[in-house]
């Protein structure tokens, strides 16, 4: 099987080095048809070639020795009293005759020179000057309420653009691969393009190993994602978060401005759409460090102009995997932290899973959906869908007590089932499955508790109690005495009924 690294080399040889299919097949020791297959893959788009730029003379050349002298002297000065690019630009304007260069030209050179000077002390330093279209990504944490449920220290993904200081965020339940990819895709599609490169931390979600010399081993799934969208991932040096200071600052800024007070909403997707629009609105302010006092939105237009085009083929951000269930038809994810039910029909078997940031979908071998769970995060340890279990045992009610399903039932439900007639158990279990499907297992359990209170052990009474509790069917009030209501006439029967027997005998009636 061809690895992603080899696929990348094939495409680089073809699109980047102008090798023919035959030459690539010889270099990689592959059949030329295999080479053609990966060159023509529709899920990837070729990256534009990036030839080395020739060095040209610059208007700044006469002034570079002066800049070099100032920056070299800075190495002896306190950190907070060193030249910034803006200070260099202003000093040249004030002190050097004939200086007529733009701030941008000077700033680029200052950043490069500072990088050269610092590289002598520390290998791997990354300059903080960024070109349009480059981005940085990071997660922050914040609380939010969704449909009344508190998600404590949940995550939010931030994508910032250092050139313009623009940025976007998306709330997430956690920090797994699905949250990362879904958030990035949503933001790519919203801005209408893909950053040319994105800077990341060495998170275990992406990086599996840091190679001596600065390389990174990343997961195949993330590598496919990068190839699909054609952006270059850049990873920071360990314990060097300052290298992507723009997004570090943006994480805090967006928390303070978009997530205070603690957000409360009905559904996460709708809230995330609102946050994207709010980030657009936030860009209508002046950039903190632009000499022309331009708005962030103006500079972000330069970022957007440099973006890569969106791919024509959508990328599936879901995870597809398999797990083994236990004797109860359950399985665990996240190193055993979170437990989900499948079905009693799949006890101690392998089931397929389709996992997104919000859902865990259990499928059979034919990829038909068996059950769908909300994905668990944090301290939520188990998700149990009772419908498959109740329907399964309703077909075999006599085996209820010998099944694992009976042991999983809450105590009050076991007590209720013990008090029902055996011939009614199948119908009662079907009713419980129907109630669970309508409004959840808790509503079925509440109905059972009410049935115990009223000593109602038949299916019709169970359904009646459910309707009264959950379908706004109020009990009929007692009738108040009124003159309009005729009074019942009381008939007194004699203690001796022999006369009545004689009348019935004459009419042909008999007690037999």
Give a topology summary.
Blueprint: H1 4-16, H2 21-28, H3 32-39, H4 64-73, H5 85-95, H6 103-119, E1 134-146, E2 149-161, E3 166-172, H7 177-191, E4 197-200, E5 207-210, E6 216-218, H8 220-229, E7 232-235, H9 245-258, E8 264-265, H10 268-282, H11 296-305, E9 319-324, E10 330-333, E11 338-341, E12 350-355, E13 359-363, E14 369-374, E15 382-383, H12 387-394, H13 404-408, H14 411-419, H15 425-439, H16 441-454, H17 459-470, H18 498-506
Parallel strand pairs: 1-4, 1-8, 4-7, 11-15
Antiparallel strand pairs: 1-2, 2-3, 5-6, 9-12, 10-11, 12-13, 13-14
Helix pairs in contact: 2-3, 4-6, 5-6, 12-15, 15-16, 15-17, 16-17
What this model shows, in words?
The chain contains 18 helices and 15 strands. The chain has 512 residues and is an alpha/beta fold. The strands form four sheets. Strands 1, 2, 3, 4, 7 and 8 form a six-stranded mixed beta sheet that branches. A four-stranded antiparallel beta sheet has the order 9-12-13-14, with no helix packed on it. The protein has a three-stranded mixed beta sheet with strand order 10-11-15, with no helix packed on it. About 4% of the residues have low confidence.
Helix content: 25-40%
Q: What CATH architecture of the largest domain do you see? A: 2-Layer Sandwich
CA-to-CA gap between the ends?
A: 92 Å
Q: What are the segments in which pLDDT stays under 50 over at least 5 consecutive residues?
A: 44-54, 119-127
Using the coordinates shown, work out and report the CATH topology of the largest domain. Nucleotidyltransferase, domain 5
| Approximate shape | elongated
